[in-house]
């Protein structure tokens, strides 16, 4: 070594470690001592230790190592390292022997380093590792580490149980190798996503090391070190029995117990899927098959044999059709088949196959039974609007009933004419179109009265249609048709024209405060030109916006709230009163009304009818009235039919009333005759039958 003594000493003095170079003679007295500055400061040694024994000169804190460790170094001739904790400070001391040329140990160099911080960090790390380790060791879920190729690196004890493999088997396997084939694509995809940094959950089937099939719920978490994914953690829960139970329950819910075929709800779901997946291409065919007179057979042979017959039939159907159709049992003696034919022509053989299938007798308990069935078929394609499974099933059922009507053992294809309802709608639509051209609709008026004074506040305009053959057709029937066909705009305009012209007339006669309430369909509200149309009519008749009130039914408003809110706001801004009709029949709350621009709520007739008998109705009624008044809204009770109802409504504080108890809707002439002759007396006598009970 080239460095001279001074260099080494001054270098040693600059060190933050305590350095003590000692030479001791036979009697264990210090004959040499180099003590660096740190050692002096930390342990209080000075060079006057020379000549003293270890016991005499040793710092009490250091006596131990100076005595024992010193001996150890001398005895073994090896370096000794140990650590000591004094007053919370952790020191690590290293004792190195120094030999002379003869190989004898002449000195010992002791270097003491304060390792408190490092040691504390190390301990913290150790404890943290232990904490994580216990999460790993004692977790009920199987936890395993996989490398980037999916090979196992480690597996916790639960994992060993779940996967049924020991450490040796584990090291030879990858996770993918135990996954069931059908799930492999999914598992590979999930593993890759996790390698790309995503945490993923999925379920998969595996075959464990004992050959048992298990179902696992797996989470893959990317293992990230220095910002890089180095592998994937797997957390697996064994859900085999849960899954089995769930499947059993599902099977019970979806399976017909007798035949093992899908039941009605399962078939409906299948149909829904088919309708969706074949939306663009090809056809979906639904066949419904009902055994003719099965009830008679069942009653005569008994239920057990009846079941046998159905079971036998299900087997024959399965044999004949399972390649082309999904087959289910949707009722006692009713089967349904769903297929995906290329064309309607593909189904022409059905009738023949069924004939053949039923031509053989059903042989149960040594007896032969001859059965027949009626079949209905409907075919829908991508261009067909019928996308609702229930509707499609209904078509097939209608066709089946038509087969039954025509005789036994027949097959009928559904056609539009079978649908009574749609035929009726078409009829109404055509007739309505005609009557609108002829201006043959008319309007009746029903007064809405102040509940205290009987004063007429408004007349509700109710459209009427008298059909030449059918007589009166209710608006409840034709308004939906008008909405569906788009004729509602003309109906609406007609009612507006008619009722505003009446109002103008009544205004001229001096009835300044009476308003007109007009029912507006949500379809009209969706029409952008509604506002302009109303304004034009008001201008034309010289009326003001607050002369009219528009009634909109609660359910339709709430179902279409996003579409109509803007128009409602604009109408209110104009100064037109808005009322919510048939309130209480929908699912809105009073608080949802708060956010909408309604001035009035018309409490639905059902509450008024029930109020005498159902105590809850009265409570609801009371809170509706109270809340509405707190919100500054007017309440109208519609459909008041009796004095008793009226009395309750008055007690509960309803603002206005309307109903047959006061008067049915009447023609404009009758209204004029009854109430509008004299401007001072536009009130309805309340409770004529009770004589003096008028208000
Ligand atoms: P709505 O707006 O709730 O009208 C009240 C209905 O209850 C009317 O039936 C009325 O005649 C009837 N009514 C009034 N008081 C009583 C009573 O005390 N007891 C009973 N049982 N019924 C009573 P209507 O005229 O058959 O109208 C039925 C629905 O058709 C109306 O319900 C309304 O939603 C709709 N409607 C009527 N006219 C029009 C219209 O011009 N345009 C639109 N969009 N819808 C209309
Ligand atoms: Mg109404
Ligand atoms: Mg109503």
Automatic annotation (TrEMBL):
InterPro entries: Biofilm_reg_signaling, EAL_dom, EAL_sf, GGDEF_dom, Nucleotide_cyclase, PAS, PAS-like_dom_sf, PAS_4
PROSITE patterns named in the record: EAL (PS50883), GGDEF (PS50887), PAS (PS50112)
Record SMART domains: EAL, GGDEF, PAS
Organism in which the protein naturally occurs: Bacillus selenitireducens (strain ATCC 700615 / DSM 15326 / MLS10)
Pfam assignment, any one: PAS_4
Superkingdom classification of source: Bacteria
Domain PAS: 128-198
Protein name: Diguanylate cyclase/phosphodiesterase with PAS/PAC sensor(S)
EAL domain span: 425-679
């Amino acid at each position: 070594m080239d460095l001279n003594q001074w260099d080494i000493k001054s270098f040693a003095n600059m060190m933050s470690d305590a350095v003590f170079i000692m030479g001791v003679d036979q009697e264990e007295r210090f004959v040499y001592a180099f003590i660096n500055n740190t050692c002096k400061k930390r342990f209080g040694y000075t060079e006057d230790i020379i000549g003293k024994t270890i016991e005499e000169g040793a710092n009490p804190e250091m006596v131990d190592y100076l005595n024992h460790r010193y001996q150890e170094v001398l005895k073994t001739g090896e370096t000794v390292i140990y650590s000591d904790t004094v007053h919370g400070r952790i020191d690590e001391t290293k004792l190195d022997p120094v030999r002379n040329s003869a190989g004898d140990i002449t000195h010992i160099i002791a270097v003491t380093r304060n390792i408190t911080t490092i040691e504390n960090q190390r301990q913290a790390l150790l404890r943290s590792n232990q904490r994580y380790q216990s999460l790993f060791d004692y977790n009920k879920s199987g936890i395993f580490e996989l490398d980037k190729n999916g090979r196992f690196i480690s597996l916790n004890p639960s994992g060993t149980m779940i996967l049924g493999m020991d450490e040796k088997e584990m090291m030879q396997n990858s996770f993918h190798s135990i996954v069931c084939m059908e799930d492999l694509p999914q598992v590979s995809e999930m593993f890759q996503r996790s390698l790309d940094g995503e945490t993923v959950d999925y379920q998969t089937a595996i075959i464990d090391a004992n050959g048992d099939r298990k179902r696992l719920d797996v989470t893959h978490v990317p293992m990230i070190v220095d910002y890089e994914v180095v592998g994937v953690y797997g957390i697996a829960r064994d859900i085999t029995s849960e899954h089995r139970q769930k499947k059993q329950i599902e099977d019970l819910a979806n399976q017909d117990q007798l035949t093992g075929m899908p039941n009605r709800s399962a078939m409906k779901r299948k149909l829904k899927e088919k309708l969706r997946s074949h939306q663009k291409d090809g056809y979906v065919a639904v066949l419904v098959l009902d055994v003719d007179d099965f009830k008679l057979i069942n009653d005569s042979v008994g239920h057990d044999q009846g079941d046998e017959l159905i079971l036998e039939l299900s087997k024959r159907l399965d044999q004949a059709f399972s390649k082309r159709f999904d087959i289910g049992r949707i009722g006692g003696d009713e089967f349904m088949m769903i297929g995906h034919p290329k064309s309607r022509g593909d189904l022409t053989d059905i009738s023949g196959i069924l004939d053949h299938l039923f031509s053989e007798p059903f042989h149960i308990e040594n007896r032969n039974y001859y059965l027949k069935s009626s079949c209905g078929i409907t075919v829908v394609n991508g261009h067909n609007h019928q996308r609702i499974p229930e509707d499609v099933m209904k078509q097939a059922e209608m066709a089946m009933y038509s087969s039954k009507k025509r005789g036994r053992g027949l097959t009928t294809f559904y056609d539009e004419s079978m649908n009574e309802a749609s035929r009726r709608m078409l009829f109404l639509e055509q007739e309505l179109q005609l009557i609108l051209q002829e201006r043959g609709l008319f309007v009746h008026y029903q007064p809405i009265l102040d509940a205290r004074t009987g004063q007429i506040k408004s007349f509700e305009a109710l459209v009427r249609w008298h059909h030449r053959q059918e007589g009166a057709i209710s608006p409840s029937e034709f308004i939906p048709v008008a909405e569906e066909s788009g004729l509602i705009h003309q109906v609406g305009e007609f009612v507006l024209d008619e009722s505003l012209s009446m109002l103008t007339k009544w205004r001229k006669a001096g009835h300044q405060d009476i308003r007109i309430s007009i029912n507006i369909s949500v379809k009209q509200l969706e029409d952008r030109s509604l506002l302009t149309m109303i304004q034009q009519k008001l201008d034309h008749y010289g009326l003001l916006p607050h002369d009219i009130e528009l009634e909109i039914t609660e359910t339709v408003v709430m179902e279409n709230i996003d579409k109509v809110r803007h128009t409602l706001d604009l109408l209110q801004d104009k100064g037109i009163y808005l009322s919510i009709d048939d309130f209480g029949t929908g699912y809105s709350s009073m608080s949802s009304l708060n956010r909408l621009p309604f001035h009035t709520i018309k409490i639905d007739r059902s509450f008024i009818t029930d109020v005498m008998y159902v105590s809850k109705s009265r409570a609801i009624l009371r809170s509706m009235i109270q809340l509405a008044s707190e919100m500054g809204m007017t309440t109208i009770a519609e459909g008041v039919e009796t004095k008793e109802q009226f009395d309750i409504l008055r007690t509960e504080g309803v603002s206005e009333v309307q109903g047959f108890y006061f008067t049915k809707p009447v023609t404009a002439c009758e209204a004029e005759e009854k109430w509008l002759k004299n401007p001072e007396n536009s009130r309805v006598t309340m409770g004529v039958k009770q004589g003096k009970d008028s208000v």
